[in-house]
Specification:
Blueprint: E1 2-8, E2 11-17, E3 24-28, E4 35-37, E5 44-46, H1 50-101, H2 105-209
Antiparallel strand pairs: 1-2, 2-3, 4-5
The structure holds zinc ion (ZN).
C-alpha cells in the first residue's frame, strides 16, 4: 500500500512501507519505479507510484502541449492581425492613390455637365445663328452675281449707244458741212444771177432808149 501527497514545496511525495521490514519511507514521485536500498534494513525495494508519475507526466505534457497550442494560436492570431492590418493599409494606400490619380466625382460630373452644355449651346448656336448667316451669305452672294451680270449687260448697252451716237454725230457734221458748201455755191450762183439780171436790165433799157 502507498499514498501520493499533493504538491509540497513543488513536489509530490510517495509514502509507503518497506516491503521487507515495514519501515515507513517517503520518496519523491519522480523516483517511482526506481530501486533503492531500505534505510533501515538495506534490502532493495522499488519505489511505488509509477501510474501516478505517468499520469503526472501525461498531465504535464498535455498542459505543455495545450500551452504550446495556445501560444501557436496566439502567434497565428497576431500574424493574422498583422496581415489584416497590412492589407488594410495597402487598401488604404491604394484608395488614396486612386483618389489622387482621378479628379473627385463631383468635379468629374461638373465637367461632364459643362461639356454637354457646351455641345448643346454650340449646336443651338450653329442651328440658329451660323446656319441662317450662312444662308443669308449665300443668298447675298447670288444676288451680287446677278447684279454683276446686270451691270455687264448695262455697260455693253451703254457702249453700244455711245458708238451709235458718235456715228450719228459724225454723219450730221458731214451733212452740215455739205449744206454749208451748197449754201456757199448757192450764194455764189445767186450773186452771178443778180449780176446777170442787172446786166440784162441795163441792155434792155439801153435798147429801149435807142
Ligand atoms: Zn526495510
Amino acid at each position: 500500500m502507498y499514498t501520493v501527497t499533493g504538491k509540497v514545496g513543488g513536489k509530490r511525495i510517495v509514502k509507503f512501507e518497506c516491503p521487507t521490514c515495514a519501515a515507513p519511507i517517503e520518496s519523491p514521485l519522480e523516483e517511482a519505479g526506481q530501486k533503492f536500498p531500505c534505510p533501515s534494513c538495506a534490502r532493495k525495494f522499488v519505489t511505488p507510484g509509477v501510474d501516478e508519475l505517468r499520469q503526472q507526466q501525461e498531465a504535464a505534457r498535455a498542459k505543455a502541449e495545450a500551452r504550446a497550442q495556445a501560444e501557436a494560436e496566439a502567434e497565428q492570431r497576431r500574424a493574422d492581425e498583422a496581415k489584416a492590418k497590412q492589407q488594410r493599409q495597402l487598401e488604404k494606400n491604394k484608395a488614396v492613390a486612386e483618389r489622387r490619380s482621378r479628379p473627385p466625382s463631383l468635379l468629374r460630373s461638373a465637367a461632364f455637365v459643362s461639356i454637354i452644355t457646351a455641345c448643346v449651346v454650340m449646336g443651338l448656336f450653329d442651328l440658329f445663328i451660323i446656319r441662317p448667316l450662312q444662308y443669308r451669305l449665300a443668298t447675298a452672294e447670288q444676288k451680287l452675281d446677278e447684279m454683276a451680270k446686270d451691270q455687264d449687260h448695262l455697260r455693253d448697252a451703254v457702249n453700244g449707244n455711245t458708238e451709235m451716237a458718235n456715228r450719228n454725230a459724225t454723219v450730221m457734221t458731214e451733212n452740215i458741212q455739205r449744206v454749208d458748201a451748197d449754201l456757199v455755191h448757192l450764194r455764189h450762183d445767186l450773186a452771178a444771177l443778180t449780176e446777170t439780171v442787172k446786166t440784162t436790165g441795163r441792155e434792155k433799157s439801153g435798147n429801149d432808149s435807142q
